[in-house]
Amino acid sequence: MQKIQDGESYVEQTFSRLSLVDGHFMGIEFEDCTFEHCDFSGAHFSRCKFIDCTFKHCNLSLMQVPSTRWFGVSFTECKLVGVDWTKADWPVFHLDSELSFKQCILNDASFFGLTLQELTLDECKCHEVDFREGDFSSSSMTHCDFTNSVFMRTNLQRVDFAESVNFNIDVLENKIDSAKFSRYEALSLLYSLNIELVD
Questions:
Q1: 61 to each of 12, 64, 81, 100, 109, how far by Cα in Å?
Q2: Which CATH architecture has domain 90-199?
Q3: pLDDT tens-digit readout, 102-128
């Protein structure tokens, strides 16, 4: 049985089918590590580092990440419901943390006020996610469902929303210069202008 110890460093290791529900971990560094079919739901990672790591088919729902650093991390087919990413450590000199989420469930997450330029969200379910006051410029948010997600004073310049649906973005409250939208879904942007659309 693989174990994760506080204060240790793990490099180029693969962790498979670990079940560490509600576990508490402190000061651990992971670099170039792969996590497959692991259950970290409710886990508490404090002052840890995940650098160039990959998560596949993992459950990370309600994970807590106080002062934990994420750089160059990709998540594929993972469940990340209710994660408050604002508690993590995001160095001001890294505008692009190279985070990638593909076919993930990110419902009820918070990215409030974060600068995560060039963020990748692909085929993700993003219901009731808080993107307010963040800078996500030059990101790719394609084929996603943004039902009830919140955008306000958000920098969405040059964001690619192609094939994404159910977003509610007020064009007067957000920066959307050079953003890309699918033609039909772009009509929803007009609702914030208090105008009447006719056929």
A1: 24, 9, 4, 17, 10
A2: 3 Solenoid (2.160)
A3: 999 999 999 999 999 999 999 999 999
